[in-house]
Amino acid sequence: MEPFDSIEKLITEHGSAAILREHIALLKEQMTAKDAKIKELEVLLKHTETKLDDYKRQVDRFQDEKPADRCPFCRRTTGQLTKLDPHPVFHFQGWKVAHYKCSNPQCGKTYDKNLEG
Ligand SMILES: [Zn+2]
Q: Cα(110) to centroid of ligand 1, in Å?
């Protein structure tokens, strides 16, 4: 049955070629979707990096605007703010208690200050 065999073979090959084409098309689609997702994530990353830079700049500005406090013990401007708490009595008026630690190695004392709101 030689002629039928070759016809059958032709049908099988043609069939699998069509399936192969479908698979390739599907893979292309998936790759396109993945490329789009990667582009989307790249944009998101860029946006996040920009935000992070903004925050870093804000922290730098805050540290520049809040220079070290004058330590009441050694009189040097080496008092570093370590913590801010709401004032125990006047918290409703926005008062805060600032906790400082002196960074002068010869002093190193801690002290608190009331900050009016
Ligand atoms: Zn001190």
A: 8
CB under 8 Å to 78, separation ≥6 — which residues? Answer: 68, 71, 102, 103, 104, 107
Distance 60 CA to ligand 1 centre (A): 24
pTM over 0.90: no
Nearest to 108 by CA among 73, 82, 81, 83: 73
CA of 112 to the centre of ligand 1 (A): 12
In this prediction, the residues of the chain whose per-residue pLDDT falls under 70 are 1, 62-67
User: Contact, 111 vs 77, CB < 8 A?
Assistant: no
pLDDT at 56: 83
Residues 6+ apart with CB under 8 A from 80: 68, 69, 100, 101, 102, 103
